[in-house]
Design goal:
Number of helices: 5
Number of strands: 8
Structural class: alpha/beta
CATH topology of the largest domain: FAD/NAD(P)-binding domain
Strand order of the largest sheet: 3-2-1-8
Helix content: 25-40%
Strand content: 15-25%
CATH superfamily of the largest domain: FAD/NAD(P)-binding domain
Distance between the termini: 40 Å
Largest sheet: 4 strands, parallel
Radius of gyration: 21 Å
CATH class of the largest domain: Alpha Beta
Bound molecules: flavin-adenine dinucleotide
Length: 206
């Protein structure tokens, strides 16, 4: 993926690492904004087809309505009420096995659950599958050595309300953004970066 960024910026790149979906049948799994980015990037790279597979119906999809509309306009096909269960293929991806779902009662968060329809398995052919759901923090192995503690989800503990804003459990290290909050927005990361800088100034008493 770094190579894709280098490619867009016109920097030196390693072609062997460049992910290119030109001419490919692409399946994107998920229904959020990240899925919409994957859909539209694949289309713009010249994919033969892009199908967005989502386990709930359109009404219960988290992605912004405008993004979904834009993706449709660019040629993305949406397959709602399909839950992925297996990626098919031996040496390379050949397709994805899905089961159909129907919308059931709301769960504890108020969103209707997708319930599997027995015997509805189906294989959708694909050359590439992009998994665009979920966010997991990836704490660095050296955190332990430097006494940087994380919560149960692997996010760095650096509270705004601490003695110094966004100070971690290592008093000389400050943190903010996604590694502290989990998946969020650019503006909140910038804001926390600035506040962490204020925290550092206070810590240094300058
Ligand atoms: C597909 C996608 C689409 C998104 N779309 C939007 C959007 O439209 N609008 C929006 O507001 N937000 C969007 N977001 C969220 C937004 O990108 C993040 O909230 C934001 O980038 C968080 O900023 P950050 O500085 O905390 O982390 P990051 O942007 O992840 O920056 C962390 C940086 O640290 C570097 N790094 C990691 N480890 C080390 C190390 N050991 N040494 C040195 N450097 C290291 C990483 O390479 C990375 O460059 C999107 C996110 C994704 C994944």
């Amino acid at each position: 993926m770094v190579s894709n960024v280098n490619h867009c910026q016109g920097f030196e790149e390693d072609e062997s690492d460049f992910i290119n979906f030109k001419g490919k049948q692409v399946i994107v799994l998920g229904g959020g904004d990240t899925a919409m980015d994957c859909n539209r990037t694949s289309i713009r790279q010249g994919a033969k087809s892009v199908s967005c597979v989502y386990r709930r119906d359109e009404e219960n999809m988290p992605g912004s309505r405008r993004e979904v509309k834009n993706a449709r306009e660019e040629g993305v096909q949406f397959l709602f009420n399909r839950q992925p269960v297996e990626i098919i293929g031996k040496d390379k991806v050949e397709g994805i096995k899905v089961v159909e779902t129907v919308m059931g009662a709301p769960d504890e968060n108020g969103r209707r659950k997708a319930e599997v329809v027995e015997g509805s398995e189906q294989i959708i052919p694909a050359d590439a599958v992009l998994v665009a759901f979920g966010f997991q923090a990836s704490p660095s192995p050296w955190f332990d050595k430097f006494g940087i503690e994380t919560d149960a989800y692997g996010r760095v503990i650096a509270p705004k309300q601490g003695k110094f804003m966004y100070q971690t459990t290592n008093e000389k290290i400050f943190a903010g953004g996604d590694m502290v909050r989990g998946s969020d927005l650019v503006v909140t990361a910038i804001d926390e970066g600035r506040k962490a800088a204020d925290g550092i100034m206070d810590y240094l008493d300058i």
